[in-house]
Write a sequence for this structure.
């Protein structure tokens, strides 16, 4: 029942967290039961919901090291139907500790088995790397969304990312089909933006789905975390809010097809 | 003689690579002999100089695993006096392999000993993480520059970054004083930009130097990598070029004081 979707791109700052926070919120506002998992020691998604992460005793880290269960660590958010499995800097210890375990790449998949059916969607926000935390997210996921900033360096990373995902599929028998490619921080008025958009279409061609919805640069999306809430609750009229609501609707519509 | 400076911030996309590429170029244009080391498996700094990284046989990875020496792997760039020690995806193997060695945190420091005196400045571009590659860069460095994007999430990461640097100083006796904090992607017309700038001043207060020069958002800086050259060579008149030249001059002026 619960579909597990990772928001993934090893390039820094291309809008993974902003997408994880606002897409999960939009899905919950469309009456889905959603769990957002913060797999980043930076804890930006956790902060995005106004949670004081330094004080947390139960986090994704204590769950992965089996001190707590997932249900014990989950917190409600101010959005009805949206829950979060929070993170903080303690998680940075995990990369070294977990790598010593046998089957270290499927620890998250194991822990999610007991909650998978309690939710319609489980979204996972990952760090800007292809390390063990991202590996766990990919192995646990049924599919991935790849946000691509409409600039050159973001496009550059695509070949490496796809290679890594193919390796994981091959060696760990854990395919993570691409649910969709999402153009973020996209200004269609700039030549650079349009060029990268075209390059993405050339690169993925007919093989992959590129969301019709694109996310524009909108300062409200950058301001919202300083108020501890998703942009959708911070400024309902903003282009940031409208595009993430449209994205959620496009995603749900495709499920029905 | 050669001062080794890391460009560091674990937050993704805050302008580390853009700063490494353009500051190293500016220093070389001001007649300094400069080496830029790309410590990121993403290889964005390498691409920023038009190098076809997939074909490279000698890289920072082959140097760290002691197959090649630093002088053997260094390449000239189109900027006179500026050399690069390039990177590509092979470096992502290093995080796991190096961690098995004794003294794995000082491998880069060792390799740089033989070239340190050949340059006035050695700049190191690091990945968005606090892992073993960043650790090597910090231990090897005489000082660091911290680029901070003028947005909330970038500010959030400061406490964790400073904590990590203090730990390295304490446990590895390897201090890396902050040469300067650099506001990047800074739009002083937005309230968010001004708020973050003020927060940075409050956070670092009198203790640390915040560069007077700030780097504005300028699309030329984002376009330049797709032409395989630093912005300074791509568009001499742009605000991106002007601010990085000013930054280099401010840095050199402080050395004289
Ligand atoms: N569409 C947008 N408009 C304006 N600002 C945005 C938008 N999307 C993201 N941002 C801002 O850009 C910065 C980077 O975004 P974000 O942190 O979501 O990226 P990320 O991929 O999660 O980064 P990291 O790689 O560090 O995890 C943040 O300051 C965020 O608030
Ligand atoms: N001042 C600026 N104006 C416009 N675009 C910029 C500026 N600085 C950086 N960029 C663009 O923003 C994106 C992120 O910058 P950059 O890659 O330099 O950050 P980074 O910190 O090195 O990222 P990562 O954490 O992935 O290594 C890139 O597409 C870059 O071209
Ligand atoms: Mg993030
Ligand atoms: Mg970079």
């Amino acid at each position: 029942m619960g579909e597990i979707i990772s928001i993934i791109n090893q390039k820094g700052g291309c809008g993974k967290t902003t997408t994880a926070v606002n897409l999960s919120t939009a899905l919950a506002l469309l009456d889905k039961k959603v769990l957002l998992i913060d797999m980043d020691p930076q804890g930006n998604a956790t902060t995005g919901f106004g949670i004081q992460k330094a004080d947390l005793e139960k986090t994704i880290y204590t769950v992965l090291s089996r001190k707590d269960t997932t249900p014990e660590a989950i917190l409600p958010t101010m959005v009805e139907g949206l829950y979060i499995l929070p993170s903080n800097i303690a998680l940075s210890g995990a990369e070294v500790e977990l790598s010593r375990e046998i089957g270290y790449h499927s620890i998250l998949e194991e822990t999610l088995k007991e909650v998978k059916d309690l939710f319609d969607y489980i979204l996972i926000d990952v760090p800007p790397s292809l390390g063990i935390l991202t590996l766990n997210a990919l192995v646990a996921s049924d599919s991935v969304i790849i946000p691509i900033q409409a600039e050159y360096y973001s496009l550059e990373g695509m070949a490496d990312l796809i290679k890594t995902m193919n390796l994981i599929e091959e060696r760990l028998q854990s395919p993570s089909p691409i649910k969709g490619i999402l153009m973020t921080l996209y200004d269609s008025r700039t030549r650079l933006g349009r060029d990268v958009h075209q390059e993405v279409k050339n690169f993925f061609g007919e093989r992959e789905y590129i969301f019709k919805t694109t996310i524009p640069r909108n300062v409200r999306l950058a301001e919202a975390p300083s108020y501890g809430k998703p942009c959708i609750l911070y400024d309902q009229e903003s282009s940031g809010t409208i595009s993430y609501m449209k994205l959620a609707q496009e995603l749900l519509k495709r499920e029905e097809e």
